[in-house]
Structures are given as structure tokens and as C-alpha cells.
Protein: BED-type domain-containing protein
Amino acid sequence: MSSCQSNSATSTAFAPARSEDPAWSHARVVPGARNSTQCLYCSKIIRGGGVTRLKYHLGGISGDVEACKKVPDDIKWQMKELVNEMKKNKEKKRKLSLEIGCGSPVDLTYDDVDVGDDEYEGGSQGPVHDSKGKGKGKGKEKVGGKSTGPFSRFFAPRTSPGSQPSIKSAMCSKEMIDKAKMAIANWWYDANLPFNASQSKFYQPAIDAIAAIGPGFKGPSLHELRGNLLKNSVTEVQNYLLDIKTSWRDSGCSLMADGWTNQRQQPIINFLVYCPKGTMFLKSIDTSGLRKDAETLFKIFDEVVQEVGVENIVQFITDNDASYKAAGKKLQQKYGSFFWSPCAAHCIDLMLENFCDPRHFPIIDETIKKARKITKFIYNHAWVLALMRKDFTKGHDLCRPAVTRFATNFLSIQCLLLFKKELRQMFTCDKWIVSSYSKSNIGKEIAEIVLEDREFWAQCQFIVTISEPLVRVLRLVDGDEKPAMGYLYNAMEKAKENIKARLKNKVSAFMPFIRVIDARWDKQLHSPLHAAGCLLNPGIYFNPCFKSRNDVSRGFTTCVVKMEPDIDKQDEIIQQIDMYKNANGDFGQPIAIRQREKSNPVAWWSTFGNEFPALQTFAIRILSQCCSATGCERNWSTFEFIHSKKRNRLEHKRLNDLVFVRYNLKLRERNIKRGRDALDPINLENIDLMEEWVGEESELIDGEDLDWGSIEEPLASQNLEEGVNVGIDIDDDGGDNDIDENILSSFANNDPFCLIDENE
Structure:
């Protein structure tokens, strides 16, 4: 095939001069034989008939020429398409000549047909030459719609998921598809790209753009990629971010600092800015060689605050590290117009960590260890994993990555419960029984846990019972679908009430867990902003079940004094809040009352708060904020280059531009669409969170079963919040009918974490 391709590159020099028909590239002129061509694939000499007979030969079309038996399928299909198009155009010419009064159809040969741009999807074949070799016209290309280039009709135009493929793409042979995929795969492996790069929203459009141009397209060079193209991308991203920055003045913003250590043990801080229009990446700072004390961090934070604009910032979010907290408090004290807030997701993760602390909750810790033993055994043996996915869980996984490490623990326990029946079936099926795994010591141990350990499953059910309410709050504060500030305060109160109800309101059972939550909430997480957001959320404040009106009123007053420097404006806001509480004016309109729980609180204030502009502006700024800094995605490989010591100034600027573009494109993609893609627990992107659930342990490995090619692709993860029954029978009031009394009594008089370190 390679020889054929090399010949085709030079065959056009020997082709007849009548046209630049694409069929000529698959044949050569026979020296000394007039009007004869030789097929490049089977070497058959075709005498006379021009390009038409050549197309019949290559396309395998019955007629007066023998079909080529060695032509590739894609070329064969292309030739058939060309013949069909010529026939349609000849028929159209014939009808046209009759309509304009010619006595008989115009006598035209296939080679004389100049295909019009509107004749078919894809436009003209290319320039048709006259006897002097001069081109009569060029193919057209539409911008923003269907491509009309000379080769576009031979590529599938419809590639979005779920769409109907074109006839051409549907007719492609498996060999052609495999060949195209292998070409991409070989480049992928050679360039050392991560597998999850194929999930980029820009991946398929790039393939479509290349296919629209057709063969011969030369990809951008190294110089172009790191030069003008990168510069254009920076400009494009900056234009996108300009709209976000403009909104800060009205909605305010949350400045987020996320500190982490890369694989070279370099401490790095990423700075992002959140507002309802989207999250943007600001910059990344390497703090190697700097003291990690509050004073040093304060100076770094202060520069970033001034860059964003003090007047735009409502809160500054960091994790709960002692030095970060001290620097944030100092920053809050200096400016006095915004709050320092701890990351809500981090604080809730610490609550979940406390729930499985072996010093105080040994039963939970032991159950999680048993569950990990099950998943590690399955995910480290390809045959067992393939058996589970294919025959029992229908492609779904036993564990799934969550936003934090300890949330992953509890969600994985929940998944085990979901597939309890399927696991039991798997460990009793004929395939398992006759396999070598069922006879190994570790295989017997895992089967015994799944089939015979009743306490294990009862304890899993209990763990889900007490953790699920907090995991729901964690998902709320981590989501980008809506700002969480107006919901967090009430969500934490409801989570505690739900835990009490699930544990049958037995004080000795629920109190250890409630004390953990209260200690973290009171000493670390709670902020006046959360209370003010709750008061200003009409769907919560006016709910008859809401009982904390006095507490949220105090938090609201604190926010007014801090965030509004004008005393007259402060008085105006305090007066207008009484109108809101009493549902006076526009707040009391029937439509406003109906929309309290239906509308987004920011939209509700924008619609019904116009009568009270000072309060309206204040409410929108608070309700537009997030509660967590978990949006700070860590792109390890890119940051490794940026913060390397081996660089020059020009290269460093280029790499900073690269991170700026890549980070903000990822954030823009997340703002546009947050889909539920398949989350593979053994994907390198998720391996940090899933290490304790799928990581290799020598005592759990049985043989060298590493045939990962036989493993089914995982399906999209099931959302365990949306009505999936995980084996827990919950009453309407949140109570649990089936929790073992022995498990409840085991937590009696357990009093953990009466005093939790604020800086933990």
C-alpha cells in the first residue's frame, strides 16, 4: 500500500491534462500508449474510455471494464460516489436542455460535466480544465455551516453523541475506521498524551476540522503552536474573561486561594475568582524558598486582592491551615470590607474524616477497611473486574471518585450497598466457582465477607445512614450550577435533623456525630455571610419550618456593618430589611410569594427587589457567592513545567500563557456543561482519590491477571442522590426502619471531639 501511495504522489504529472479529477491520482499514464492508463493498485492497463472507465474499474462497478480487486475500501467508495454524482448531473443537464428548447438532449460526456456548487453537499469537485489547461473555477467553502471543500463529501459531518451518522460514514468499513483510529492512537502514544485528553470538548471538533479540509492538510508547526496560535488563544480567553470581570462590580466575587504541593514537593498556590458568570484562573505562585508563616502569605494575598480590586471582593476563601487562616484574618482586618471564609468542602470533609476515626468510631473504620479489601481485590484482577462489569453490574462500578477523599469513602460504601445483590450472585455463579480465584486464600476471604458476613452489610447500611446527609451538603457547596451561599446554613441544620431522624432520635446514638458537626461548624465553618445568605433566601426564610430567624438576623447585621462603609446606606438597608421580613410592598405580591421557592434567589431579588435598590444590591452581592475553593483543578503536568527552575524569561512567559489558556478553557467548559461522564476508578485522573479503594496491595493480589484489554468500558456513574435505592428503607420523616439496635447501642456514651482543634 505504501508503494501505491508513493506512486500516487507523482502520478498527476503523467495524467491526461483534461481535468484534475481525483480519480487520476490512482493511475499513471502508459508511455507510448495513447489514451491508456494503468491502475496503481492492480497494474491493469485500461485502454480508452478516459477517467470514466477508470472510475468504474476502481469502484467495482459492473460494465465493460474489469473491477480492481486490490483497491482499498475507502477509494472504492469514493469512486462509486463520483460515478453516481456524474450520472445525476448528466440527467440534470439533459432535463435542462429539453426545458430551454433544444431539440434533443445536449450530447455531453462525463468528463465534460462541470459540477455546480449546489449540486450536492460538499460543493464542486475542483477546477475543471479546458483544452489549454486553464481552470474554470474553484470549489467553495462555507464558513460556520457545512464544509464545501473538494474532499468534505467523503467525511462524516455528524459526530456529536447520539446524532445519526451520514450515509458515507455509516458505510465505512471496519478496516477503514480501525486504520484511522490507529493513526490517531500512534500519534497519541508518541506524544505521551494522557488518555483523558480524549474527553476534551475540543477533541472531536479538531478531527472534524481536519476531515473537512481533507488529505494533505499540514498540522500547525512547533513554532506556530507556541507562537501566534498561543497568542491568539490568550486573546480569545481574555475576551471571554472580560465579560466575567465586568460582572464583578454588580455581583461581587469570591477570591479563592488553593495551596498544594506538586510531585517535586514544590509548594504552589493557585488563585481563582468566582462569580455567577463563571470561575476564572488568575495566576499560580511558587512559594518554594519562602517561609510559610502568616506574614509571608499575607503579603502574597494582599497583592492578589489589589489586582482583583478590594471593592469587588465579598469573601476570600482558603483552606483551614493555621497560617492561611491567620493571613486571611489579617487581610480581613486590614480592609474591613470583606470576609475571610474557610473552604466549606474542606471542613465537611474533615467532619467525614472524624466519622471514621478509629479512636472513636472503630466499627466504621473496620467496615471501611473490609469494603476496601473487596474493591482492591476486584480492581486488581482483570478477569474478576470484567466478569463483574459484563455479567452483573452492567458496566457500573463498585466505587467512584468524589470531590474529596473521605466523601469517596462513603460514596463507595453506598455503591457497594447498591450492588450487594449482584456481588452475591457473582461470588456464587458457575464462572466464579470453577475459576482459580475461588480456590485461592484471598478469593475465599473476599467471598466470605460478601456472602456470610451479615454484620458487614448491616454496618455498611449504618455508615450510609449517618454520612449521606453530609455528602449531600458537600455536593451542594461543590457544585457550580448555582451559588451555594444562600443554602449552606439551612443545609447544615437539615443534615443534623436528618441524621437524628435516621437514628430514631436516640440521643445516645446520634449525639457523637452531632457533636462532631457542631464542633467543626462553630469553630471553623460558620460565617456571618452564611447566616445573611440564609435570611436573604426567600425560599428558606419564609418556609414555616425554618426556626433560626434570630440567629440569621444577627449575621445579616454583621455583614451590613462590614460590607457597607456608608452609614446612611447601612441605615437604609436595615430599614428595608424589615419590609422584606414582613413581606411588604413588592415582596408581598402574590407572584413574589409563589416564586419564593421556585426561583433562584438572585433572580428573585432582581425581579421583586427594585422597590428597595439598596437592599437589592446588597442581597445580590451576598447570594451570588460560592462556599468552596474546590473548583481549583490541579493540572499537575502543566504546572510542573511552569514552576521548573530550568527556564529562561521568554519561555517562562510562554508557559504562563499556556497555563492561563488551558486552565480557563477547562473552567469555561465546566461553566457551559457539567455532564455526568463515565468515571473510571482506575483512570489515572482519579487515582489519587481512589488509591485506598483500587490501589495494589501484595496480600490481595492473586497471580498476574493484568489483561486490561478484556475489561468492559465503564458506563456513566449512577447518581446515588436521584432516587436510587441502596438498601436503606427510609421513612418519610427520614427515619430508618432497619438499623440494628446493637449497632446503635455501640455508640452510646461515645463522646468524641468535644474540643476540636480549630487549626486542624
